[in-house]
Design brief:
337 residues; alpha/beta; 8-stranded mixed sheet; 3-stranded antiparallel sheet; 11 strands
Length: 337
């Protein structure tokens, strides 16, 4: 078969993009087009499946197969699609409300089963499509149309759900970090099993600036750390800060001060089977410790749809039938007249 080189334009269609001007979804869509071109899977062998929400309009803007499903059910439908069509590359698009509220159960079980799908979780900490209600990732005390006096709940941290469900791939980016977004999406596509990419996204209408404490250019370099497998965990405007061990916890230090040298700074190992350090890295939030972006965990494990196919082949070989009808008629039967 002839190898074809794709461009981002090969994955775009002619539909006008109907998101608000300035919405972070535009940047994520752009990053996804470019990532798909880099991975090089034929658009005709790609399916993009979404639920309900602003982010879930994304399949309309793809020159691939697409399915705009119902609220919270994207993971369930993506699972069924992948098992029935194992040769296809499947992307799931969900927002924090769609994916973690009504769709939360499907989300954790897709991760637990390790189905070979790529989940992009747009996190703007608000229900944007339904006009500004608080979501499962909204911070305690957040004032919204559905919490006029502030929420009295603690939010989900998407990474915590992924690790709690024994996830094998978790990455994070920010809508304005286009290069990092492309990097994590490419890595997600190349990972065998469920990959989850959380992308912090800005809703300019109902939650504008919610991520400013980490995205503002003035201090982004000091409040985020770009993790790369095999490289030292260094960050800061001057690249003079690093993460070190402090007992069982992590600590941010300035290299060259208080006796810390570059040798003390940890090296990122995204492929470590133990998720102990990965969880600590993923839970950093940009306050005491920098928010981690990039690929945080990328570990091989048995893949659900591959195991299902293997099991089906084994049963067919053992039982001697290759269809449902053959299976039904394999035992004792009788004819009713």
């Amino acid at each position: 078969m002839e190898n074809k080189t794709y461009t981002a334009a090969d994955f775009k269609n002619a539909s006008p993009v109907r998101w608000c001007p300035g919405c972070g979804d535009h940047a994520i869509l752009n990053s996804l087009h470019k990532a798909m071109a880099t991975v090089g899977v034929d658009p005709a062998m790609t399916a993009v499946i979404s639920g309900i929400g602003c982010s879930s309009r994304l399949p309309y803007y793809m020159n691939t197969y697409g399915f705009h499903t119902i609220h919270g059910r994207a993971a369930a439908i993506a699972t069924g699609f992948k098992v029935a069509n194992p040769e296809m590359t499947v992307w799931q698009i969900s927002g924090d409300g769609d994916g973690l509220a009504i769709g939360g159960n499907h989300f954790i079980h897709a991760v637990r089963r390790n189905i070979d799908i790529n989940i992009i979780l747009f996190n703007n900490k608000i229900y944007g499509l339904t006009k500004g209600q608080y979501s499962p990732t909204s911070d305690r005390g957040f004032v919204s149309k559905s919490s006029p006096y502030g929420t009295t709940e603690d939010p989900f941290v998407p990474a915590e759900l992924v690790f709690g469900a024994r996830g094998n791939f978790f990455a994070r980016s920010i809508d304005v970090e286009l290069q990092t977004s492309q990097e994590v999406l490419v890595a997600a596509a190349r990972h065998r099993g469920t990959s989850v990419c959380e992308i912090l996204q800005n809703c300019v209408i109902f939650n504008n600036g919610i991520h400013n404490h980490i995205t503002d250019r003035e201090y982004r370099a000091d409040r985020t750390i770009h993790l790369v497998h095999g490289e030292k965990m260094i960050f800061g405007k001057e690249k003079n800060k690093g993460l070190v061990r402090d007992g069982f916890l992590l600590k941010a230090v300035t290299i060259g001060e208080d006796g810390y040298t570059i040798d003390d700074v940890l090296v990122h190992d995204a492929h470590c089977q133990s998720n102990f350090l990965h969880q600590q890295l993923a839970m950093m939030d940009g306050t005491d410790l920098p928010l981690a972006i990039g690929v945080i965990r990328d570990v091989d494990a048995p893949v659900y749809n591959e195991e299902v196919s293997r099991q089906v082949d084994e049963v067919r070989a053992k039982k001697g039938f290759d269809s449902l009808r053959a299976m039904i008629l394999a035992g004792e039967t009788w004819e009713v007249k």
